[in-house]
Amino acid sequence: MSHSLTSPVAASTTSTPALEIRGLGKSFPIGGLFSRGSVRALHGVDLSIGRGEILALVGESGSGKSTLARCVARLEKPSSGAILIDGVDILKRDRFQASRTFRSQLQMVFQDPFGSLNPAHRIEHFLRRSLAIHGKGGGSGEETRRRLEELVTTVGLQADMLNSYPHELSGGQRQRVAIARALAVEPQVILADEPTSMLDVSVRIGVLNLMRKLRDEQGISMLYITHDLASARYLADRTAVMFAGELVEEGESLDLLANPAHPYTQLLVSAVPDPARAGSYDPVRRAELRQAVMASATCAFDGDPDQACSVEEPVRHQVGDPGNRHWVRCHLYRPWAGASGHALAGEPTQPNRPASNAQEKASA
Amino acid sequence: MTISQVSFGSHEPVLDVKDLTVKYIGDTRSTTAVDRVSFSIGTGEVFGLAGESGCGKSTIANSIMRLLKDPAKIAGGSISFGGKDVLAMSPEELRRFRWQDVAMVFQSAMNSLNPVLTIGEQIVDIYTTHAGYSRKESLRRAAELLELVRIDPARLKSYPHQLSGGMRQRAVIAMAVALKPSLLILDEPTTALDVVVQQEIMAQIKDLQRELGFSVLFITHDMSLMVELSHRMAVMYGGRIVETAKAQDVYANPRHPYTQALMGAFPPLTGPRIPLTGLPDGVKFRNIPDLTEAAPGHFVAPVGADASVIESANLAGAAR
Question: What are the Cα distances from residue A235, in Å, to A205, A223, A243?
């Protein structure tokens, strides 16, 4: 295996990030004609992904991570903020809907490989269409044929699978086709929203390994959205934790999982099933952490001369050595009650969106 | 030592499944979903059944509850519960067996609550129908039951949509243990929940199990969760059991290549990042032989040159 599983972040962190999100906010109106209520799904999210970097965004259901994915994919119009690719604000450039240029820069891989591939077409059709739409070939020539075969072999499928229909493939193979379709466009950034959560456990690792291989060999940046901390640690260079529509902590994956600074991150890390620490569940500690997430009275970084604590502003404190770019939001800052109550109670998120339609549209 | 004699707790098995075979019979061809599966669960034992979708683990649960519908047919084997033959029960016997002896919590159980009845009414229903208590007595017991899973008894008056997903799942678990069954079947009880809630519910099931002493058949695809909760476990593949042993033994020393692949599919939370492979797409095991005892209490299906064919179909190694 050629994967460099311990390779540090790509060196080019100083240049323009491949994808940068600034102050992204999104609220959904709720209630009827005469009520003015709204749900704050995202608030002031700042993220940046360097070239050839994999960033994982983790959080529980209802934390807003899928809303973020939908905003970045331009399936949802953000209420505020900016999304920059190569330093260009695409919300300003393509004001009303995503342009083809944008689609050729950023591609998506969705959760459900069963819903994102039209069952009436052969695999070849999906890839050929991606090539044709983005002007990268797609005719009947030898050149296109070679490119198609190259694409399927890159994602670990056999060339003769181009003639298969989606129903003939397993979930893992379908997800590989979805990845090949994204690759056909030669994007800089791939946005993967829970790409393995609907796959059988034994093939999940294979898909994660493929994503890492693409980053290593083609330098594609990735935003990997997941609820699975262990897979984030396995795949991503950096991990950002989302809670109640806001980021609470971000750092180098191994460092973040080993030294979680925010009580919410600690809560998440402590809840992952792990036979090595079976029976470590402590209801008292759990209650303390919940209390600290919702209404902390103290901040571990109180007394930091550079950044004073604030109840009003989401101040970012540096954790440990400045070199490892690990920050945590000040504990004193209160999460928005409306969203956080839901998140911690395990309340299911908003009604299921018509996922497969959106996926078909967006991937074209 | 035979498989059915190895059990945690009492040696008197609550449930004994022998050579169970279930077929889905179609017009032109039939599929064997469960193939000669044998296991037993002792009193107070938590037995885990691990495997991926389609391996037959839910079919086994449904066979034990006699919930299989056409085209599924039990084609062979026996299921005995406390000495009674489950497969020979009359409809009246089954009705009693189903809630009083064995209760089941399904994956989407929290959605199985009736949305137009309060939680209280639904619990009272169980007591009046199955145990014949008066309404007043039933209400008193319903309140106790909610306290058992740490839900405020005032919630008896709530409708399901007023509770969070975790609370609903806890209410369903409370209902399942309402009549003190001796066996509780949990079919992916926490898959739809977030990790934090999942851990709290699993801790609660453990407490209930200690308090009430029932046995558990725990079905999941999450090996980490299974090893944490179960005393003994079996790993299924393609309708057959490929390995069964104490959960800690399977975790520390998985012997069958499929079990090893499953264990390797969960990245660790600590230590250095090591490349994992999982099971390459397309690798299949065929003709899995009967289990043999590889170590005391550790049964594995032998993998040999001709005993078991590892078919490196068209994709072997492609995942790498």
Answer: 9, 11, 21
CA dihedral defined by A273, A276, A278, A282, rounded to 10 degrees?
A: -80
Interface test with chain A among B152, B228, B277, by most A beta carbons within 10 Å = B228
Q: Would strands A246-252 and A327-329 be described as parallel, antiparallel, or unpaired?
A: antiparallel
pTM for the whole structure? 0.84
Q: Which residue, A139, A326, A115, A109, is CA-closest to A225?
A: A109
pLDDT at residue A157 greater than cutoff 70: yes
Interface test with B, best of A163, A200, A340 (most B CBs within 10 A): A200
Residue type at position B255: R
Asked whether the beta carbons of A73 and A108 are under 8 A apart, the reply is yes
CB atoms within 10 A of CB B35: 20
Q: From CA B69, how far away is CA A279, in angstroms rounded?
A: 39
Backbone φ and ψ of A80, nearest 5°: -155, 170
Token couple for A84: 């920059």
Across A120-144, average pLDDT: 87
Helix (H) or strand (E) holding A224: strand A221-226
Distance CA A322, CA A301 (A): 14
Amino acid making up residue A8: P
Residue (of A237, A238, A245) closest to A264 by Cα position: A245
Please state, as a whole number, how many other Cβ atoms lie within 10 Å of the Cβ of residue A131.
Answer: 21
pLDDT digits (tens, 9 = 90+) for A254-288: 999 999 999 999 999 999 888 887 777 888 888 88
Q: What is the CA radius of gyration of chain B?
A: 21
Q: What pLDDT, in 10s, does the model give residues B240-294?
A: 999 999 999 999 999 998 998 888 888 888 888 888 887 766 677 888 888 999 8
Q: Which helix (H) or strand (E) holds B32?
A: strand B30-42
> For chain B, which ranges sit under pLDDT 50?
1-7, 9, 305-320
Residue A1 to residue B266, Cβ atoms within 8 A: no
> Are A344 and B53 an interchain contact pair (Cβ–Cβ within 8 Å)?
no
CB B142 within 8 A of CB B122: no
Q: Are B149 and B204 in contact (CB under 8 A)?
A: yes
Decide if B264 contacts B278 (C-beta within 8 A): yes
